[in-house]
Structure formats: structure tokens, C-alpha cells
Design brief:
Blueprint lengths: L1 H14 L10 H8 L3 H8 L7 H10 L4 H16 L29 H10 L9 E5 L6 H11 L8 E5 L11 H11 L11 H12 L5 E7 L2 H4 L10 E6 L4 H7 L2 E4 L5 H7 L7 H11 L3 H14 L2 H9 L4 H4 L9 H11 L3 H10 L6 E3 H8 L3 H13 L4 E4 L2 E3 L2 H14 L2 H22 L23 H10 L3 H7 L6 H18 L5 H13 L3 H17 L3 H18 L2 H17 L3 H13 L6 H17 L3 H11 L10 H16 L3 H14 L6 H17 L3 H17 L3 H17 L3 H17 L3 H17 L3 H18 L4 H19 L1
Parallel strand pairs: 1-4, 1-5, 2-3, 3-4
Antiparallel strand pairs: 6-8, 7-8
Helix pairs in contact: 2-3, 4-5, 6-7, 8-9, 14-15, 17-21, 18-19, 18-20, 18-21, 19-20, 19-22, 22-23, 22-25, 24-25, 24-26, 25-26, 25-27, 26-27, 27-28, 27-29, 28-29, 29-30, 29-31, 30-31, 31-32, 31-33, 32-33, 33-34, 33-35, 34-35, 35-36, 35-37, 36-37, 37-38, 38-39, 39-40, 39-41, 40-41
Amino acid sequence: MEAFVSALNSLRRRAAFGTGKARVSIDDLARATRIPRSTVHVYVSGRVIPPADALAQIITALGGDQREVKRWIVALDRIATNPPAQSAAVDNAAPVPRQLPPLARDFVGRERELTALDEALRPSHGVGRLVALVGAGGVGKTAIVGQWAAQHLDEYPDGVLYTDLRGYSSQEPVGPERTLTRFLAALGHNTALLPPTLDERMDVFRTAVSGRRLLLILDNAQGEEQVQPFLPGTTRSDVVLTSRDQLRGLGVRNGAVRLQVGPLADADARRLLSRLPGRAPQIDAVLNLCGGLPLALQVVRERAEALGSLGGVLSEVADGEPLLDVLALNRETGGEVRTILDWSYRTLPPSTQRFLRLTSLLPGPTVGLDSSAAIAGLSRVAARRELEALAQRSLLTPLDPDLWARHDLVAALAQERLEAEDAPEVVGEALTRILGYHMALVERATLDDELCLLPWPEGVPHPELPLDRAQAWARLADNDVLIRVTVGSVGRMDARAIVTLAERTMWAYDEMRYPSGSPLQEETLEVARDSGDRLGEAALLLRFGDHHARRAELAEAEEKLRAALVIADELGLEKVRLLALNSLGLACAYASRFEEGRRALEEALAGTSDDQPVLRSSIHLNLGILHDSRRDAELTEKHYRAAARPTADGSVPLSGILGLVNLASSLIDDGNLQEAGVVLDEARALKGVHQPSRARTALLLVEAQWAAWTGLHDAAANLLADVENAVSEQPDPFLGLQFLHVSADLAALAGRDDDAVELYRSALDQSVARDMPFDEVSLRKSLAPALERTGRVEEARGEYVEALAVAEAAGLTGPVLTELTEGLRQLEEAQAER
């Protein structure tokens, strides 16, 4: 009978040639012969010997002529008169099993995964295929398999077998013996007559599926041992399994195709919520809440339908309801999302459970190797093992060798388990470890004790990091948790420790990037004030004031810095006074308040000594910026050069590198291109000493400026592309403004005046919005000639006039006024000649 079925399948494939199908389907045969589909199926599968007239209809429908029909009927007669021996243990008339997992309501998206299943399960020379869908609990693996299987039933004429192995469940996992018994029963075997041992039942199962075309769906496997007896081997049946475990061994030993299932795409998640009443911001908030997890989205949809809108669900979040309670239809049982995540947690060994709990103290969507090692008190090797164990269970997702992504809902569960299982002392010790690690990292990468007001806090470990400065910078760039760890420590740690971390954190952020510091300011300033720590309050006011100044938030900068000066005068804190005057002078320089800035900076410089080289370098840099705004070439160069003097150990502070970069830019503005090139070489030679991204970006920008003005336009464009990437990744208002200015200059030099006008105006809008008169005057001075070259003479004249008015209001004097006046005069003379 097997030969009969095989020959009939060959005829079905021949008849389908050129149609794009693998073979003529059961449905097509049923329509062509008008024989019921179920009857056709038992005929072509060999379960029942078809009558001669039915066989003739089938062969004719498959393109056979009368001679071929006759041959088939003769063969059928031989089978009927000599039937194969049948075992009493098997019911060959048993219905074809169609065991599918429950289909998901409103299945959306997943085109990538369904296409991948099409490719992986494409028939291949009669050999069964093995596919494993792996991913986090609740991500929709079972729904994907069920959807695919429902669309491909015709490809499995002998049936579909499904079982939930309960690998992650409140019940005991299902062993191979039980699964074999269920499958054999579905295939018509009398389970009472099955042999007693697992190996013998495996032999019976392999014999039963031999020659058949089945689909086996093994859902929710905990590990490879649960699925090993059902792997396809040499059979024609396909096996699809799902698991939260990554099941990497199946790929190595059994050739399994592993498909990683991640969260729903944003557009598909929106489709899932499309019928719910709610405004776009509410839908955005729900998407952020659920993180693309289909189970969470389904729960929100059900709850929103019951409450009448998404707003009811979101109000619970706003009221401080635990996230996993919000995502629960039945809170008495713990809720669907909490339960499914908890099943994963319970399968972890105790050490990995502890690691997951402690790393929940690290806020944000990623977990880094070094931060997690520090907070758990482990070596890097041990921490990597734990991170990989969590990734193996799909609780983390690798991003690069030292960084893993973590879903917010996984973090929420881990935080709940931390509160339930760990004493406050344990949490405090973990936070102390991470605080010490990050303070040491900042110290190694950026901080000079000369500029630090607060000593290392008592009780906080001071780890010795085997890193050089460049390596520490790289770790800082990869660990975007400093501010969030500081804020998260409020109320859990010693007040002075938190304030000290905040002060040192701002050093890293001021030198490396420019995020919003407002959460850090509000929380940690309150901690310092509530604890009566006046020195700590002064230190934070200094750091936050300097931070605002660097962001061109000049009013906020002045408020903080003057408050720090008040505390310095009250307590006689000379170091606080000098640092505050330095930062205040910088803010005044940016605001073109020349005399006020000069007095503050010169007073600060006079109060320093030779054993404070870093502070002196910073003050000289700011004095250089101040005199550069007046285009006083001699004093500008003097102070920029003084900023770049090496310290006793031969190193040059960040302010020194920036001094040389600024000097080169100033020389370019004055047309001294050759001298500017020499200064740029000096700056390049120093950049390896200290490598914060701001210094690198500033150097790239001035190199682009130099290339543009020396006619190397292609090189300038390439350098500006690198600057644009850097500024977009780590926004800096001053470098961003200079980037637009240099880009506009390049466009003008290349003869693209319309582009230049657009870029100058974009930069001009920013300088006006930030109240930066020197930059505004400089941009209007550059914009006017570009407008004149494009024929917009009146607009050009207006820019000159406005620039002169702004310069006068800001008290700008010197060459800049001369250049503006001369430019306006030449334009008016040319206009008169016309």
C-alpha cells in the first residue's frame, strides 16, 4: 500500500508541474472529482482502498488517460486481493489528526517569521525538517506556529500532532513517555497494547510515522531532553517546537533552524489596538508600556474594552499601580503577564535568580557587563556567565559582547522579586558597590581631584580599575546609567554618598555628553538640603551651573552659580568661590557680557596657584573664549596657549586641547590658514592623552573648517559628515551651532549660495533662541554676502544693519564692527552704481 500511495503522490506532483504548487492538493482533487474532501483524503493517504470508479476519477483528474487509468485499477486489484498484514494494535480507520494550538484572536503582522517558516519547512527530498521558534514568554511563538500550520494543512496529509510540553508552567513538565502515548493514540494505536519502556515506545512511534507526512508541534519546551525522541531523523515528517530556551544544541547536533521571535513591530502593535477608542498619545503610551509584547497588548485591549477606553488603563499607571498589576485581567491569580514571566524566573538556578534581582537596580533598557558585575559583586567572568544564562532563557537579548537588552516587564518582575526576597541591607550593599564602581570609572576617565570638592564618601568601596584613561572613556560611553543610578539611589543610601556621586557624575556628562540634568538636579539638591550638607549643596550648584552654561542655558547657569557663591562666602570656601567665578565668567562670555566675565575670570585666576594647573587651564580657556569674542588676537592666543600648558606629569587637560582647537579656529577666521594648520597639528598630537568625545568632535569640526578654507572641499564634507554623526549621538548646542556655520561656509565656498543661505539661517535661528549675540553677529556677517550673491541685496543690507545693532547692544567692539561697517559700505556703493 505504501508503494501505491507513493506512486499516487508522484502523479499529484506531476500534475501540479508549472502551477507553482508542490502537488495537487486534496481540496483541488475533491473539487475536480466531486468526492467529499475527507473521503479523498483517506483514499490518497492509503487509509482506505478506493473503489475502482473513485480511483478512475482521481487518476483522470490528475491528467491520466484511459490506458493509465486501467493500469492503476489493475494495481488496485492486486492490493485488494493481497492486503498487507495489519496489527490488532492499530486502527487504520482512525481519523486523520488535526491538532492545532488555539489560534490567536486578531493575529497581526509577523510576516518575517511566517516567511521564515515557509523557507525552513519547504519540502526537501522527502526528509523531515526541524525548526525551533525561541523567544521570551508571551512574545507570541505559539500563535505564529498555529497561524502557519492552519495555512499549510494540505501539505501534511497524514495529520498535525500538537502538545504543550509545559516546560514553563505552574504544572509539572510533560515527559516524553506521556507525549509519545498521546501521539500514538492520535495515530490509531491502542495505548493499552503499547510496550512499557520509553525506548520501545520510541521504536513504535518511529515505525508509525515512517513514510507519513506529519507535522509535529511541540510547544513550550523547557530543554532539549523533552523533544529529543520526536526529532525527524530520516522520516518525512516536520517538527516545529517553541521554547524560551535558546536550544542552541539542536542547531549544532540536529541541524535545527532557529528562529528568534522578538516583540511585535510598532505598526503591528498599533493595528492590534486600532479598534480601541483613544488618542494617539494614549496609544503611544500603551505601546511604551507593553514594549511590543503581544500578551501584554492583548491584556491591555481586554481591559480597555471593559473600562471603555485606554485612558482608564493609563490612569492606573499614573496613580502608581504596579505595572504587572495593570497588565492583569485577574489580579487574584497574579495576572497573566506576571505569571508567564514568573514561570521563566522559577526555572533559573538560585545564583542567576539573585543576579537578575540585583541587576534590576540598574535602570534603563540595557544591562552592561561591568555595571552588572559591580552591583552583583562578581568578577567579569562570573557576571558574563549569569548574563548568558539569562539570555539563554530569553530574559535578556545580546546586543554586543558586553551589552544586553532587557524588556521593561522583565525588569518589573525582577524588582518585585527583589522587594519580596532581599533584605534592605542587601539592596544597600549592592547600590554601594555600583556607586563605588561608577565613581571610580569617572575618576579614572575624567576627574582631576584638583577640581573635585567632595572627598570619596566613607563606607563606599574604592575599586582599583585595571583600565587606562581611554579604556575608562569607552566604558563610560557604553554605560548610560550614571544619572539614573544616582537618582535611583535616593532614599536608599547615605545622603553624602549620593551627593558625591552626583557631583562626579556631572563631570563625566559635561565632558562626554549633554543629557538633560534636571532629574539629577531636583533629586540630589533636595537630598543635600534636607541633610543640611552645605558643602554638598555648593558642589552640586557648581556642577549644575557649569552644566547649564555649557548648554547655553545662561539664566539657569547664573542662578546656580551665584547661589554657590553665596554659600562660599558664608562658609569661607575659597575653592568653591574660584570654581564658581570660573563658570560664571564662561556664562558671561557666551552672553557677550565682556567686562563682567573678564572681572570674574581674572579674579578666579588671581586666586589660583601653580599647584592648581587644571583649574588654571580651565580659567585660561574661558579667558581665551572671552577675548576671542572681541577678536583680540593677541590676548586670545595668549590665553589659549596658557590653557594648553602641560601639567607636572606631562599630560594636558581637556581644557588645553580645546584651547588649541579654539585657537586654530580663531586663526582660520582671521585668514591665517598656515598658522592654523600648525596649531591643528599640535592639537592632533595631544588628542591621545585625553579622549572625551567632545574634544574629538571639536577637533574634527575645526579640521573641516580648515579644509573648507584651503580648498579641500571633499575632505571638508567627509569631516563634517563625521561631526554630524557625533553631534546627533551626543547633542552639544555649541558644537551643533558651529557645525551649521562651517557647513554653510563650505556651501558658500563651493558656490552653492542658496544652500549656504538656508544653513546660515538655521544656525542664526538657534543663536537667537539661545541669546548668543556674538554668534548671531558672526552668522549675520556671513549670511549677508551670500544673500548679495543670490541677488537679494535688500535682505543682505538688512542683515548688516541688524548685525551692527546686535553688536552695539552687546557691547562688541574691535575688528568685528570694522568688518560689518566695511561690508555694509561696499554693498551700498555697489547698489548705488547699479
